[in-house]
């Protein structure tokens, strides 16, 4: 962004959001209480305050408590520098490539502590930009500047343990009440600075059931392509949060609506568009809704299954094009090729792609049930996942019904427990 443009957007923003004048919401006017904050987060906050620093609870923890939801984790922000935070906590690790953060470990729980940061064009030196995108962001700043560089107004609410008040710099409370997701500042430059904010908009809209404000929404389709500049490892982290956050189906539909899905899984989108029938869409919808159900029931979910499902049709398509090759061999060949291409977008780690491949290969191996001994497949470590995968193919309308029934019956005959045999035998 040119200097003039950045100054203009800052002035515009100041006028609209009165950044330097936070409204203070006193304790009686909000529902945040210490009993709703984890003990670990409280300990971090108190320890920083006692050491003479400022410290606030911010982000999803504050937002979710205000919405009477259970926070996923707690984020703390402070004027202590990461090295100073490390000196206070023994259980602290400094992490982060784009910016340095302190992770304070309490058993399984991690409290993330970020130093107040300014936007790249304010505060001290330390930000590295390229074509309007933030590459490195260690520009420390004041509390007000920290609020300005956050993504959405509802994510920029600060809880102050000194007087139990809430600081609202960007009308976050109003947006929270109205169920609106609104970017802080000028949307186009905020997306150019960090295109992942488009994915975050979709994720929060689905998770919170919020409407995306129209100024925040408008540039998304136009800027979707900017996701190609994001390191695939970062997109992998985002993809897990998008699809395994409990609202996977709705998120999938929103991502497609805003032309973002194609940036993450281009071959899958191509297959969705080119398929005349609904089978692939049905299949992915079934996979995602059953994943959502498992998450809400507190059951474990595996990323391998998700990636196997998302890439199944492109792999199968590629395999079918290998004329003259036996199908299993063609699937191996197609899996190599497709995964190589896919990890250039979303860096799915090998431990997940290995299992996804087994699920695909088992679809083929489970299909050959005549004239051979095949019950040993029941002992395959990925059999259960491959069988569930097969049932979802049945549910989506694919003609593999009798095959699925065969494997259901075989398991019942062997006394293997099946969750819902009536469904499986349908
Ligand atoms: P949850 O943890 O429930 O997914 P969250 O809002 O806490 O949601 P985090 O990724 O934990 O999300 O980030 C914590 C806070 O850091 C956010 O609420 C937001 O204020 C800020 N933040 C995170 N990512 C960005 C970003 N890409 N651009 C600007 N601010 C961000
Ligand atoms: Mg968080």
Commentary on this structure:
It is built from 21 helices and twelve strands. The chain has 426 residues and is an alpha+beta fold. The strands form three sheets. Strands 1-10-9-2-3-6-5-4 form an eight-stranded mixed β-sheet. It has a two-stranded antiparallel sheet with strand order 7-8. It has a two-stranded parallel ribbon with strand order 11-12. Strand 4 and strand 5 (101-106) form a beta hairpin. The chain is elongated, with a radius of gyration of 25 Å. 37% of the residues are buried. Mean pLDDT is 89; it is low at 1-19 and 422-426.
Our measurement of the CA-to-CA distance between the termini, rounded to an integer number of angstroms, reads: 59 Å
Structural classification: alpha+beta
What share of the residues does DSSP label as strand, in percent?
A: 5-15%
Shape: elongated
- Helix percent band: 40-55%
Strand order of the largest sheet: 1-10-9-2-3-6-5-4
The ligands found in this model are: adenosine-5'-triphosphate, magnesium ion
**How many E strands?**
12
Which regions have little confidence, pLDDT < 50, spanning 5+ residues?
1-19, 422-426
Radius of gyration: 25 Å
Biggest sheet architecture: 8 strands, mixed
Overall average residue pLDDT:
89
DSSP summary: helix tally = 21
Give a nutshell description of this structure:
By secondary structure, the protein is an alpha+beta fold. It is built from 21 helices and twelve strands. The chain has helices at residues 3-17, 39-50, 60-66, 82-88, 143-149, 172-178, 187-193, 196-208, 214-217, 219-223, 232-243, 248-257, 261-264, 266-274, 279-296, 303-320, 327-342, 350-366, 383-395, 401-413, 421-425; strands spanning 23-25, 55-58, 75-78, 92-95, 101-106, 109-115, 127-130, 133-137, 157-160, 165-168, 180-181, 211-212.
